[in-house]
Amino acid sequence: MKLNEGRIGRQEAASLAAMGLVSSAVFYPNAAEGYRYGNANYFAAPLAFLLLLLLFFVIVRSMKRRGAEHLGAFLTDALGGLFGRIAALAVVAFLVLSAAIPLIQFQLLLKRFVFPDSLVSTICLYFLPPMLLLACMGLETLGRTARMLFWLFAIAFVLPMLIPISAFETYHLFPLPMENPVSIVQSAVRMAAQGMPAVLALLIYADGVQGVRNAEKYGYIVILGGGLLVILLQLCISLTFSYLDLREIISPLYRLLMSQRSGVNMRLDKLVLFSWIAMGILSVAGYLYAAALLLCRTTGIGDVRPPALSFSAVAASLALLVSKNTNWTNTAATLIVDNLYLLALAPPLLAAAAAFFRKERLSA
Predict the structure, then answer these.
(1) Which residues contact 288 (CB under 8 A, 6 or more apart)?
(2) For a designed S-S bond to 135, which of 260, 285, 309, 344 qualifies (C-beta 3.0 to 4.6 A apart)?
(3) Please, which residues bridge with residue 123 across strands?
(4) Is the peptide bond before 175 cis (omega within 30 degrees of 0)?
(5) Contact call for residues 41 and 247 (beta carbons, < 8 A)
(6) What's this model's pTM, rounded to 2 decimal places?
(7) Nearest to 196 by CA among 293, 91, 105, 279
(8) What is the pLDDT of residues 71-81, one digit of tens each?
(9) Three-state DSSP class for 324?
(10) pLDDT tens digits along 53-70
(11) Who's near 224: CB < 8 A, 6+ residues apart?
């Protein structure tokens, strides 16, 4: 079988998963629902990552209980052959959709702020070749590239917190969104689901990081470190813009870079944006490779490259469809984004519940 998995170490695995987690959390549609009663996002972010940590613990504990070497083996073992494959296909669909969402956000950013006179289809062509290549090259290429870009990744997400410091105002944090606590919980669940593709991908290629025990350690590092970064970014956004402004802003993170328009900062936003895109494409390729690997392992396909190519084309096509901005595409995109958390949480949690009622095996 040609699964292009190989082996990667701690730094490569943590770098790849951290890029995916942060990219999925910050390059996501800015839902106005989170600002109905005030800014609920900076309240929800800590709760979201605590919830993600709990979900990861439950899934990994269940995998170790059943002695599963990776997520695909766990789903088929816990749910049986037929239902395990159906659950695996649901996870594959979730990963492909999660790959399309950052592409849509990057298209919007480039179209609006960098190439306003270009066609979206032309902009999308810049994403497709590196995404296809990285997804087909496999885990070692993805991990080593992520390790090489890690410090660029760190700088590119720390700068938006430093540049607008002079614009921070504590009154932007008010009113406190306490009139409807349910909205905070809903925001937290959705934000936790945004981090799920990174940790699910890590568990899919768990044997590529020398086992579930290592994947567990790297996952905790990624959730704690990446979660802290996302929480700080949400706090900086909330200190810079009022909740009324945030209802209308397409990409609050990019607007942080534009809040100071003097000296070197006038060009810095474009440089940082292209750094985000490079890391976003790497994260997307990681999701698509993980989806292809899961499909191969649960259906018996012997070569990961055809599914990886197909999923890359599907993700790019979805991004292009949404860019058409028609009524039906906007309605479908809103419906998918609002309910994507169900696809993220249902398959692994159902498998974890099934594993709890079955006999314990030797730990993986």
Answers:
(1) 95, 96, 99, 131, 135, 308, 311, 312, 315
(2) 285
(3) none
(4) yes
(5) no
(6) 0.94
(7) 91
(8) 999 999 999 88
(9) coil
(10) 999 999 999 999 999 999
(11) 49, 53
